[in-house]
Amino acid sequence: MAVPVVDPSLIPLTDADPAEVAPTRRPRRRPARTDLLALGAYVLLGIFVCLNYWGDVNGRVSSHLPTDHSWFEWLFTHGAYSVRHLENPLFTARQNAPDGVNMMANTSLLGVTLPLAPLTMLLGPQVMYALYLGAALAATAGTGYWMLSRHLVRSRAAAFVGGAFLGFAPGIIHHANGQPNFVSNFLLPLIVVRVLTLAEPGRWRRNGLVLGALVAYQIFINEEMLLLTALACLVVVLAYAVQRPRATRAAAGTFLAGLGVAGGLALVLTAYPIWFQFNGPQSYRGLQGGVFHNWGEDLVAFVTFARDTWAGDPAVEKTIGLTEQNTWFGWPLVLLSLVALVLLVRRSLAARIVAVLIVVFSVAAIGPWVRFNGVETAVRGPWSYVSDDLPLVEMMMPTRLTLVVAAAVGVLLALTWDAAYRQGRPAADRPRVPAQRTGEAAPATSDDEPAAPIAALRRWVRPVGYVAVALAVLPLFPRPLPAQQIDPPPHFITAGGWRPYVPAGRTLVPVPIPSNVHGLPTLRWSALTGQEFPIPGGYFIGPNELGEGVFGAPNRPTSSLIYSTMDKDVVPALTDENRRQAVEDLRFWRASVVVLGAHPREAVLRDLVTGLIGPPQRVDDVWVWDVRALVG
């Protein structure tokens, strides 16, 4: 296997000053057979992770986040609807009628749903969801592999291990349970590479333009992951500057010029969407009560095996009580990481920067109070000193900062495998740096090579290193994502029986009305019929009367009455005021028909709605209340 030349514009593998390393430029290479095998393995792993969905792709959703799963199916339909009807994708009135939803102010995945709109129209949102989820996992691993193999390590196997972790880390697999936006990280390795090449002499315009385009596109995929990547790049640049002040001063002008080009282009491309996000209709500022601000990382989580790994136990999360498993590395990987850092930091600049990333973001991920094994201690965490009113900070969840730690661990795994790989290589294969006094080229000091190598010991380093990495990561091999069966929409909905009841400008009111707690099946009615009818309520974040973000539409008296009846499974005593308010709410929603399909609470819901607006008709497999005459 050919040994690639490490790109000198990035963080070097050796501790030689970049100004002293003989400049070599890598020739452009086509993907080798090894690269294609790596990508093929990632694709197979992506299919394996989504295996439970493919058993009945039209009738299964995530067991852990079924409402999020349905929301993203709805998003794929939104992209297709926007393209088909040439509507502004930044806003929709197909949910939360009549107020609508600001899609830029929500997780909308427009950078994916719009380009894939033709496939969604052809295959449907359920197939598109499962197909994309596996592809996004594989693509992230693939770009991570490219970054590592082309710019940081010599061993393709090392790059494969690191790329696999970047794409399929426990925290990423956890988010794959209904949140494909957090597994859509395939642009992030490319962004990191472009940031680290901004100082490349003579190419600052080109590098800046490419970086600006990548950043602009990532904004339409996941702004939160872009923010975390930007913070990580800032720490990397600062850590490099402290350790390489001379090289930093020499390259600062070029780097800043390229950064200016990138920022300018990204701003031009995204100025209106970002303005719309914060100032458009149904925009908001922060979340009511700063609900995410308290979600810090439990210290025991780092050494715990994640639920969706082969070594994981679903019962453990009940003890720790975390909502997300963004670290959950397990003790073998934590132990390996500590040992690897001890062995590598003295000789590897890259390892030292990785160590800084791990420490900074692990500490930052602790919330306002330190948590240990599910118990909130009296020890203050770093977020207790941060106001939850600060822009951007107000929307951040501290635990998600550990996604940077996961990425750093992935790089560390690649560096560790590569260090073992390079032990025992012939001297001719080692990189050479110019001698400073004699003028003769001498072998470069390898990151993990001792000053006086012992041949017998070196023979054992490679197999021991490989085995150590394997034992640390194999327990984290992902399981297929758990899925649950869900009832299909009524035939009345899928066959278009609703069409005579819903003229243009009017809404179909499903019972129960969709919300972030209730009405998961009825939200899918909209998704699986191409959003051809608007609905009230929904699953989104919108403003309350104070302009703060809240989950779902503000409850109206009738929707609150429906939810309480479902929860109690008893129809309350209805008053004339309840009936008057029901008619008023239907007018507000611009309703033309109310529809109740099969539901565990079907009997009480039918009796409730009948008591409010009169008897229904049985049409096909649903109960129908035609309210056009009632609401005018």
From TrEMBL:
InterPro entries: DUF6311 (IPR046278). It comes from the Bacteria. The keyword Membrane applies. Residues 81-376 form the DUF6311 domain. Coiled coil: none annotated. The chain crosses the membrane at residues 36-55, 129-148, 157-176, 226-242, 254-275, 328-346, 353-372, 401-421. Keywords: Membrane, Transmembrane, Transmembrane helix. The keyword Repressor does not apply. Residues 428-448 are annotated as: Disordered. This is DUF6311 domain-containing protein. The lineage of its organism: Bacteria, Bacillati, Actinomycetota, Actinomycetes, Micromonosporales.
